[in-house]
Amino acid sequence: MVHCSCVWFRRYGNFIDNLRLFTRGGSGGMGYPRLGGEGGKGGDVWVVAHNKMTLKQLKDKYPQKRFVAGEGTNSRVSALKGSKGKDCEIPVPVGISVTDENGKIIGELNKEKDRILVAEGGLGGKLLTNFLPLKGQKRVIHLDLKLIADIGLVGFPNAGKSSLLSQVSHAKPAIADYAFTTLKPQLGKIMYNDFKQISVADLPGLIEGAHMNKGMGHKFLKHIERTRQLLFVVDISGFQLSSQTQYRTAFETIILLTKELELYKEELQTKPALLAVNKMDLPGAQDKFRVLMNQLQNPKDFLHLFEKNMIPERTMEFQHIIPISAITGEGIDELKNHIRKSLDEHANQEDDAYHKKQLLNLQISNTIFYSDPPPKNSVTSPR
Distance between CA atoms of 289 and 300, rounded to whole angstroms? Predict the structure, then answer.
């Protein structure tokens, strides 16, 4: 068994996962018509990935969020060819997706020193432009963090996600006996004895209708997209948002959470998922857990209890189902071990898939390279 403890926790009440920036390439320099001199090209604006950078640091350092490259120098007698303007580099974290104002992806930065050109400098004045310089490209760009954590906690409000986060990571999120404890994402890290770290994000609780932007709605679901795996957390006693809303059993909660993910984006259901059944310290919890396990093993036998529009196209398949109590600590070590095992297994599968793809590409390129050329005297028939 891998024993783990956490010595590190970060709350990100001020966490930033996307930024909108204005960028403009530098203008070109003036040409010199009498001597045919060309002005220097304007500088370019680049987005460059750095391991120790965050979007919050970027915003704090450049509150105006405007990035303009230098102008090209004018052509003159002593230097007919003007110098290029100074490039502007925007430092961003690794794991950023860059899109334009219309949502079109410009590129992604997946490792240190990756760089993307986002705004090109204008041409310097030359014969082609009647020796007049051109202005640099203007572009509004959006930076989006692709991944905020390894594990995203999914559950209706008050399922005990905040309590669980404090158990697995010794974090200190606000915990109270009212529905919306978490209004902003909280991030904790599980640290294992061999120094392995796994980040866990407690995201604002979903409510029915979240896909239509109710409650934290799309903001929450967008965060879910940015985690490697999902950890569903449900209260064994079920859930009721308020006295005006319907009571839901633990099984109904799981079905409704699955439906919300499906309605927002079906691909979310393909993420690896684990299930933590919380509050097992309550009276009668063991009996309720046995009923829940039967329902999860034979979901089709119980779906007739739901209205048609509440039934997901496919039910969630959990790799592990772990009964826990975030209050007493029951099952927490087992949960941590399953989290690690699941992440390691999928990392290995991704590596295998990547190597197979590389091997296939190599085989294809070799086949093309070694294929016999057509005989010299062969005649190809016109199409």
Answer: 18
Beta bridge partner(s), residue 234: 277
Q: Please write the tens of the pLDDT for every residue from 106-134.
A: 999 988 999 999 999 999 999 999 999 99
Q: Do 191 and 80 fall into the same domain? A: no
Identify whether the C-beta of residue 205 lies closer than 8 Å to the C-beta of residue 156: yes
Same domain, residue pair 177 and 296: yes
pLDDT beyond 50 at 212:
no
Asked if residues 260 and 208 have their Cβ atoms less than 8 Å apart, the reply is yes
Supply the range of the domain harboring residue 48: 18-145
- Express as a percent the part of the chain with pLDDT over 70: 75
Cα three-residue angle 157-163-165, rounded to 5 degrees: 100
DSSP 146: S
Angle between helices 250-264 and 285-297 (to 10 degrees): 40
- Tokens (6 digits) for 184: 């902003």
CATH assignment of the domain containing 127: 2.70.210.12
Does residue 194 sit in the same domain as residue 271?
Answer: yes
Instruction: With CA atoms as reference, report the closest residue to 340 among 170, 193, 167, 225.
Output: 193
Each residue of 28-72: pLDDT tens digit?
999 999 999 999 999 999 999 998 888 989 999 999 999 999 999
Amino acid at 292: L
Mean pLDDT of 339-367: 73
- Alpha-carbon distance of 71 to 251, in angstroms, equals 63
Judge whether 302 lies within some domain. yes
- Do 292 and 331 fall within a single domain? yes
pLDDT at 146: 78
Output helix, strand, coil percentages for the chain, rounded to the nearest 5: 30, 25, 45
Burial of residue 243 (number of CB atoms within 10 Å: 0-12, 13-18, 19+): exposed
